[in-house]
Design goal:
Elements (H helix, E strand, L loop, with lengths): L8 E11 L4 E4 L6 E4 L7 H7 L7 E6 L13 E5 L13 E5 L5 E9 L3 E5 L9 E12 L4
Antiparallel strand pairs: 1-2, 1-3, 1-9, 4-9, 5-8, 6-7, 7-8
Amino acid sequence: MNIEIESNTRVTLNFSLSLENGEEVDSNFGADPVSFVMGDGSLLPGFERRLLGMRPGDEAEFRIPPAEGFGEPQDDNVQSLPRRDFDEESLAPGMLFSFADAAGGEVPGMVSEVDEETVKVDFNHPLSGRTINFKVRIAQVEPAELH
C-alpha cells in the first residue's frame, strides 16, 4: 500500500534532529524506525506539517525555525528558587533537575546561576530558540486503526 501521509495515518520513519552547527541532538538512523499517528502529539505540529504528502521511501531534510519547533525562550520560564530548597551541596550551572508541576507531573529545569541565597532555574525547553535540521526517511504509511 503506497498512500501518502495525511491526518489520521500511522507513519513509520527514521529521523534525526541536529542543530545548525551540525551537532546531532537525537537520531534513530541505524536503528529500528519509530511509528506514530499523525496528530497524536508525538511530533510538534511544525514537524508534522512538513511530512504531509510524503510516501514510503521518501527522504527529506527540513529546516525548522524556533517558532515552528521548540519556541523561543521565555523570560518567565526562568525562576529564582531558595538555595535551601536544594539538597545538592555542589550546585553548578548546567545541572538538570526534575521538578513537580502544578498538575502533579514532572518538568525538567536546568540550573543557570547559583549564589549563596538563590538558584536560578531555566524551565525553557533546552532546544528553545534553536533552529533544528529535521531529516526523515519514511518507511511505512498506513491508515491509523480507529479504536
